[in-house]
Design brief:
This protein is an alpha/beta fold. It is built from 13 helices and 19 strands. A hairpin with a 4-residue loop joins strand 18 and strand 19. The relative contact order is 0.08. The chain binds S-adenosyl-L-homocysteine (SAH), iron/sulfur cluster and FE3-S4 cluster (F3S).
């Protein structure tokens, strides 16, 4: 009889993509996924360690599962992802009811490890840092979340070592998937009905740097994907500011399927803070890149990430972040208060830590500025007619609506009684809210 697996996915898109791959492999060995943890034989958590809060959440979540096990429920518990890679077998000390700890480098071993558990093994830990690159799994070994967008990792890991960031420690060195495997994966996803391909990497502009025998970079990959027959969209995240090449910008303009959207985290508006963060650009250079993209890519959306309260950040330096957001008219930003992460360089600067209340207050001002920027950005489109790819049919405040995204990644709500998920529709924008825009079918 087939068994059931429940998985809680806590991290970024890369983490979600790993979940899809793990569910696919588990399906091949007899596990169907369930949304109801109480029904599962195997409970998995795919963790994120970007901030302390996400790490703490992981442990509190599995506490409940531990209780079920203590009360005699016959379940297996697997702890996966970035916290697993970072803490390894220490996890058994904190949560002895965990059966398997699986790091980010060894996902492909999951079916064998589950078999080991089924055969009675206890406290299995597989976190060896292999820096292996597992090229594409057969598509039937990926259980993609049912949506219109397929995520395809193109690079793994990161070599940048920004002083605040844990990712280089949890994901290992930067390595690229082969173009062949990415293109095959994209073609299969499109044949299976997906309408959008999003290429994933911590720094997608580094794609191909590790190919010894050929000069093949992100722009080449985009061009090749753009040549695949059919109506679909292509996106790529995340871009590292100073690695964005002229060729990449030209490619976005030239390739009709590649969307006008760049996610380029700035992190801080102060050149001094950026230096301490070990980011390889200053405020002026970041501004130049944004201006260059805006001048060449019509209607482009540029989004960013910012950290408030990095160690040593002065009020003046923080104010430079607010002014950068406004000056550069950033369309949307992810924001966070600095959280010290074990092993990272900045975490050692304890004498420079910003008090929690100051961080919280700065984060609030950052969020307020972000809201202003988002609304302003959305208002630019009122009265325009845009193409929207529909992602959902839902009831919003008592009315049937379809929701989707424009090419430049704006979320649009449209009144409609028919489920049009997966269709491209033309929409007249009627008014703008902070987080989305309203429109009507034309
Ligand atoms: N590769 C991407 C970011 C990946 S992590 C890049 O280079 O921009 C996603 C975001 O989490 C980062 O952009 C950063 O803003 C935030 N982040 C990372 N470490 C953090 C920390 N220690 N505290 C608070 N936010 C952090
Ligand atoms: Fe982290 Fe910096 Fe790498 Fe992004 S580029 S993942 S912020 S180390
Ligand atoms: Fe992603 Fe969190 Fe790991 S952001 S790479 S899941 S630390």
């Amino acid at each position: 009889m087939r068994k059931k697996v429940f998985i809680d996915t806590m991290g970024c898109q890369m983490n979600k993509s790993d979940t899809e791959r793990m569910l696919g492999m588990l399906s091949c060995i007899g596990y169907d996924s369930t949304e109801i943890p109480e029904d599962a034989d195997l409970l998995m958590i795919n963790t994120c360690s970007i901030r302390q809060l996400s790490e703490d959440k992981a442990f509190s979540e599995i506490g409940t599962w531990g209780q079920w096990k203590k009360h005699g429920k016959k379940i297996k518990i697997a702890f996966c992802g970035c916290v697993a890679q970072q803490k390894q077998d220490e996890i058994f000390k904190r949560a002895p009811y965990v059966d398997l700890v699986l790091g980010t480098h060894n996902i492909k071993m999951l079916p064998n490890l589950i078999k080991e558990l089924e055969n009675g093994a206890k406290h299995v830990c597989q976190c060896e840092e292999t820096n292996a690159i597992y090229d594409t799994l057969p598509e039937d070994e990926i259980k993609r979340v049912k949506s219109i967008n397929a995520w395809i990792p193109i690079t793994e890991g990161c070599n940048n070592f920004c002083t605040y960031c844990i990712v280089p420690y949890t994901r290992g060195r930067e390595r690229s998937h082969s173009p062949q495997s990415i293109i095959t994966e994209a073609k299969t996803a499109l044949q299976n009905g997906f309408k959008e391909i999003t290429l994933l990497g911590q720094n997608v502009d580094s794609y191909g740097k590790d190919f010894k025998d050929r000069e093949y970079r992100l722009a080449d990959l985009l061009e090749e994907l753009n040549n695949i027959e059919g109506k679909f969209r292509i996106r790529f995240v995340t871009s590292y500011p100073s690695d964005i090449t002229d060729k990449l910008i030209e490619t976005v303009v030239k390739c009709d399927k590649v969307c006008e959207y760049f996610h380029i985290p700035m992190q801080s508006g102060s050149s001094e803070v950026l230096k301490k963060m070990n980011r390889r650009y200053n405020r002026e250079e970041y501004s130049q890149i944004v201006k260059k993209i805006r001048s060449q890519v019509p209607d482009v959306t540029i989004t960013s990430d910012f950290i408030a309260g990095f160690p040593g950040e002065t009020e003046e330096q923080f104010a430079e972040t607010l002014s950068a957001m406004e000056e550069l008219e950033l369309d949307y930003s992810n924001t966070a208060a600095y959280s010290p992460r074990e092993k990272t360089v900045a975490a050692k600067w304890t004498d420079k830590y910003i008090p929690d209340d100051v961080k919280t207050e700065r984060l609030k001002r950052l969020n307020d500025k972000n809201k202003e920027c988002c609304l302003k950005s959305n208002q630019k489109y009122v009265g325009r007619e845009l193409s929207v790819l529909i992602e959902n049919f839902e009831n919003h405040k008592g009315k049937n609506i379809i929701t989707g995204r424009t090419r430049n990644n704006k979320i649009v709500h449209i009144p409609c009684d028919k489920d049009m998920t997966g269709e491209f529709v033309n929409v007249k924008i009627t008014n703008a809210k902070t987080w989305y825009i309203n429109g009507e079918l034309v």
